[in-house]
Amino acid sequence: MTGAIVEAKRKGTNWLIVPGIVWMALFMVVPILMICYVSFWTQTTFNISSTPTLASWKQFFSSDTYIGALWTTIRIWLIVLATTFIIGYPTALFVGLFVKSKTLSTVLLVICVIPFWTSFLIRVLAWRPMLGKEGAINIILMKLNIISQPIEVLLFTELSVIIGMTQIYCVFMVGPIAFMLGRIDRNIIEAARDLGAGFGRIFWKIIFPLSLPGVVVGAIFVSVMVLGEFATAGALSGRKVNLLGNIIVTQVGSLKWAMASVTGVILTVVMGIVIAAFLRIVDLKREL
Amino acid sequence: MESRTLKPVLAAYLVAFILFLYGPFFVLGILSFQQGPDGGPQFPIIEWSTYWYRQIFGLTPPSRIAPLPVGEALVRSLVLAFMTMVTSTVLGVMSAQAFRRKFRGSTFVFYLIVLGMMVPGVLTGLGTSLLANNVIGISRHWYTTAFATHVAYTFPFAFLVMLAILNRFDGSVEEASWSLGVNPWTTFRKVTFPLIFPGVLSAMLFAFTLSFDEFPRSLFAAGGTEDQTLPLAIYGTFSVEIHPNIFAFGVLTTLFSFALLSVYGILMALSVRRARKLAMQEDIA
Questions:
Q1: Interface predicted TM-score (ipTM) of this complex, two decimals
Q2: Which of A32, A195, A229, B22 stands 20 to 30 A from A119 (CA)?
Q3: Phi/psi-derived region of residue B112, left when phi > 0, alpha when psi is between -120 and 50, beta in every other case
């Protein structure tokens, strides 16, 4: 009889999911559908009406500015993906594999995460006095007599956007990779070494393949965030670098809702393709 | 492994990496002590002073540089983060509780919820403001539309934290309670909730900090200047000339975050200690 009561009580919990579903449907799914819907509305200078038209779509694909923003977004995404991976992987390798004590590796990860408790915008802004013509990097390099003239390309260029984004997002690469590396059975590495494999071979045949799911998770995190970016690009490029996100912000600012929506749909499609591609490389459900 | 050569190299690399992560903050911290009101947001430091800190609290005589418009924005952000924290945690606990039993479409619902943390804020923000502004025709405010997007963003985090906690949860204590005739709500309050409390704290911390710092969603979904949250107020200063007061403010918000983190740490330690005490009492009995 007890079993029956317990069974009944357990069954009674299904309704608990309803508020969550309703909230996500109303404030996640419907808004995304709205973007698709409004992208076909008719836009006039000061007004927008629900008469369906393809005008905004045609305008997007015939304008160099918008197409340019699409390519800039993809270029910066690829570059930042590469830099976060290249800069993050050795760190993850050390924290996840070389540090023997679990406590130390946790402490090191916490040290990497601490900057995230500073406001995102302040983190972006902190690069300005660092990279500027009279910034810290130029002063240090000039004091060390490495350069005689300040490097001016450091700030308000695409380079500064890439440096800023790399610093802000590389921890999202380090975390998942370090996690996967920490799970590698040390005996496999031991065995390979006993059989005479050098480090290079062990790395490419064992360590790297086993860390790949972590790389994919990190890449998904970084991609989702970089593709939807606009604040870093705006603040560190002096509005010279325009991403799809920046286009959306400016279009909404001038009440061009239809054009903002077209850009939003394109961003969604790009994001969907990228995530689907990553999930094809590694079957996450099986690996994790 | 050639760890004798590789390990020191990687250790040195790690130090460089941490410098890269922290460098900008050191520079920011140093420049926040720039002389005021004439010192600019760059080197060299003309004279060390706390002028910009005093300016934030309105303790300096008025000058050509307007103080940061952060007072009311801070209150709005705190209230919004608190509302978001409560709603997200309640939704997260409820949904994770429902997920303890397999139900039809649970995989679909799982992805529906997780979508909230994957879709960029620009898109949720834009969509929500389209829905409110163009389709329904209501005005946007920080406590309505922005609040809805904040919850849609933080609820998945709370949900995942609670799911991880409830996956390791031993259901037999609840079953014991039910068989003794205690109703489900009392069982939840007296048995389940105290046991999952550390998870609830983590979910609350996630929701609060994410909402407090949320920027793209608020940018679209909150209304005009009378609806500015703190990140929006900071963003507003980006477009005009930057002064060291924003650096000083950055230092202060970082300290605030650490205070919040300490409170979380203390509450966590207390709840762990209480759980241990209870376990000991049971052992004695």
A1: 0.87
A2: A32
A3: alpha
